[in-house]
Amino acid sequence: MYLSKEDERILNGEVGHAAQKSMQILVALGDLFGADKLIPIKSVQVAGVSYHNLGDAGLDFLAELAKDGRVLVPTFLNPAGMDLVDWKKLKIPEDFAKKQQLVIDAFSKMGINTTCTCTPYLIGIEPKFGDHVAWAESSAVTYCNSVIGARTNREGGPSALAAAFVGKTPNYGLHLDDKRVPDVLVKVDAKLKNLSDWGTLGYAIGKRAPNKIPLIEGIAGKPPQDYLKTFCASVVTYGAQPLFHIKGVTPEAEQYDDPKEKITIGEAELKEAYDFLNDKDNSIDFVALGCPHASLDEIKEVAKLLKGKKIAPGIEMWVSCARPIKERAENLGYVNAIEEAGAVVAADTCMAVAPLKGRFKSVATTSAKGCFYCSGHNMMKTHIGPIEKCVKAAIDGKWS
Ligand code: F3S
Predict the structure, then answer these.
(1) Which SS3 state, helix, strand or coil, does residue 63 take?
(2) Crossing angle for the helix pair 157-166 and 17-33, nearest 10 degrees?
C-alpha cells in the first residue's frame, strides 16, 4: 500500500505511540485487503464501548492509548453498558458503573465526543452522499452506506480507533465503486405495515443473501426513516453485506442493472421469520424498545400508548435512545409519561451491550436484531411485534 511522507512519519513513531500503533493496524489491514492507499475520512464511530464487552484488559488498553492518542476527525461512540447518568434506574451494579465511567473517561481524554449511539444520523452526525467515513456499529454502517450513500466498511473496535488517530482509512471494500454493485435481486411481494414487518423482512433477506448486496424492488412509496433503520439493523445481522439498494428509495439504486440471481420474499417468508423469532411460551419479563436507538417519533408513540397506564408487576421496560433525543423527549414531557407508567428511557445504552445476562428470561421487542442479541448473548426467549403490541405486552404482563 502506498504511504505518503506523513504516513511514513507516523509509522516511524515520530508523531507518538498511539498514532504509530494505529498506523501499524491500518497498514496491516490495507495490505490484507489489497488497498492501494489510505484515504481521508470525515468521521469515526468507535464500537467496543461497553465495559461488559471490554473487561479490565480492554479498559487497560484504552487507558494506555489515551496517554498520547488524540483523534484527528470528529469521533463518537457506539452504545455503552449503561445510561451514563441514570444508571441506577436501570439497576446497573455500582462497580460496573465505575468501570464503565473509566472507559468513557479514557475516550474523552482522546478527544472523542462521548455521545453513545447507533443512530448518529438522528442527532446531526450525518455524512453526505459520497463521503468516506469509518464507522463500526453494523446498523449504522448499513444506514450510512445504503440510505445516505456515504461509504464505510464495517470497522472493528481497534481499526475504527486507529482510523480516528490517523484521520484516514485503507481504500478497500465498500469505499470502492466496484464493491458496491448489487449481486442479488430481491423482489418483495408482501405488505410492510410497521417496524417489526421491516425487521422480519431484514431477517428474511439476510438469511437468503449471505454476504451479498441486495437490490430490492417492490417497495411502494418512500418508507419512513424508522422503518429503514430497523431494516438496516436486521438485514446485516442475519447475514447480508452492510449495503443494500432499494429501487425508488436509496440514492445509488438506479445506477445498477438487475443482478442475474433473483429471490422473492412474500408473506410466507415474513411469517416464517415471525415464527422463528417468536417463542411459543408467551411469558415475558422484559420489554426492550429502541433498537436501533429510538427516534423522537417512536418515543412519542410509546409515551402516548403508556399515558395513564402502568407496567405490569414483574416487568421491566426500556426505551433506548441517544442522549440528545432523551433530552428533547424530556422537554416534551414524553419521558415523564413513560416513567410514570413504570418504564425507563435508557440513554447511551441498549439491550445488547448492557450487562443483562441472567437478569431476564424473555423479551418483547420491535427489533429482529434485538432478538438476535437477546437470545444469542443473553439467553432470553424472544417475541417480536409492532410498538403497540410490545407496549400492550408490558401492560398485560404477557405476550399475546
Ligand atoms: Fe443499536 Fe444496540 Fe440495537 S447498538 S442496533 S440498539 S443492539
Answers:
(1) helix
(2) 120
